[in-house]
Amino acid sequence: MRILTLFLIASICSSPVLAEEKDSRSMEALLAHSLQDIGNNNLDVALNEVDSLLKVNPNFKLAQLVKGDLLLARSQALNDFGNAPNAPRGRMEDLRDEARARLLRVQQQQPFNTTPKYLWQLDADQHYAIVVDTSKSTLYLYENVNGEARYVSDFYISVGKKGADKVSEGDQRTPLGVYFINSKLTKDKLTDFYGSVAYPLSYPNEWDRRQGRDGHGIWLHGTPSDTYSRPPRASNGCVVLSNDDLLQIGKRVQIGHTPVIITNQMDWANESDRADRDALLGEIEQWRSDWASRNTDAYLAHYAEDFSTGSVNFASFSDQKRLVNSGKTWIKVSISKLSVFPYPSQPGLVVVNFEQDYDSNNLSNRMIKRQYWMKRNDKWQIVYEGSA
Question: If DSSP codes are grouped into helix, strand and coil, which group holds residue 181?
C-alpha cells in the first residue's frame, strides 16, 4: 500500500505523543505515527491513533481522510492517499499537500540553538518575535532574552493561494518583509471564517509603498469553527493558523510591538551576519554623534542619494537640515529601545526602530523613529527615515 511513502519517517519520535496536546507539533507527530503504521500494515493501530487525533479535534479534516482510507482498506486495497470514490479531485490534492507539509515539518529539526538572521536585535519592550517561513508552512515564535531571540515553538500555517511575494491588491499572495502587529480583532468583530481572533499586520510598510506594492488586509487569523486547519496555500494573502495555535501565540503578542518577519526561505545567523550587525550598530551610533555635534556634512553623509522620507527627497531633506542646524547653538540626541531587523526579500536592507530623545537650544521632542539602512559597496546608508 502506497500512502505518501516518500514522506514517511523511519523514526518519528522516541517519546510518546499525548493525545490531549493540541498544538501543531503534537498533532503532526501523532498523524505521522499513524501513517507510519499504515505503511507497516498495522492498520488497527493506525486507526486507534487517528481516532485519538479526532477525539482531540474532530474537525481535523486530514485525520478524517486518513480514517476514511483505513475503513476503506477493510474491503479493498488502497493505491494512494484519499481513495474515497467520487471524492473532489481539488479537495484531495489540498489534503495531500497538507499531509506533505505536516510530515516535512515533523522531519525538520527544531531550531533550539539557532537564531534567524532576521532578528539581529530586539528592544526591551518586544517580549516576543515571529518569523514566518512560507516555503515550509511554518510560523516560528521567539522570546526576547536580553535582546537575543530564543526559540519557543513553531506552528503549521497556510499562506496565499498563489504563494508569497505580494505585489498588488487581489493577487492572492502573502507579502514578504518586516511587519508589526497593528491591532487585535476579537470574535465579535469577525465573521466565523476568520476564527476567534485576528491580528492585522502593517502591510504595506514604507518599503512596500516605495516599491509600488499595494493592497491591504493582511492578517494573522484563525479558521472557521468547523475547520481545524487549511491547506498550505489557501488564503487570499493572510497567514492562517488553527484556532488553538493562534490562541497560544495571542498570549504573547503585543499590539504595536511584536515584529512579524515573513520570508520565503528561513536563513540562520552566522558570523558574517554578526559582523554586519556590529558594523551597522556602529554606524547608527556615529549618525547620532554626528547629528549631536552639529557637523551637518558628516551627518548628511549617512544618507543615500536616493533617500526619501516618503514625500521629501534627499536634496530637499539636505537643504532643510542645513537651514535648521544653522540656528542651533547646541544639540543633544539620545536613542533607546533599539531594534534591528534585516529585510528578508531585499539583500542588504535593514529596518531599524528606536526611541529618539532630541533636545536643542530652541526645540525638544521625543519620537519613535524608523529608518531603513542599505549596505552598498560595504557602506551603510539611510534610504528611508520617518516616524514609526
Answer: strand
56-109 pLDDT per residue, tens: 889 999 999 889 888 888 777 666 666 666 667 778 889 989 988 998 898 887
Q: How do the domains of the chain map onto residue ranges?
A: 5-107, 128-263, 271-387
Q: Which residues does residue 330 pair with via DSSP β-bridges, in sequence order? A: none
C-alpha–C-alpha distance, residues 352 and 368, integer Å: 11
Chain position carrying cell 492572492: 172
- Of all helices (H) and strands (E), which one includes residue 352? strand 349-360
Peptide bond into 85 cis (omega under 30): no
Contact partners, residue 247, CB within 8 Å, separation at least 6: 196, 197
179 close to 261: Cβ distance less than 8 angstroms: yes
- Report the C-alpha gap between 340 and 371 in whole angstroms: 10
Please spell the DSSP secondary structure of 122-157, one letter per residue.
--TT--EEEEEEGGGTEEEEEEEETTEEEEEEEEE-
Q: How far apart are CA 238 and CA 218, in angstroms?
A: 5
Q: At what angle do helices 43-56 and 24-39 cross, to 10 degrees?
A: 160
CATH code of domain 128-263: 2.40.440.10
The model's pTM: 0.91
CATH code of the region 271-387: 3.10.450.50
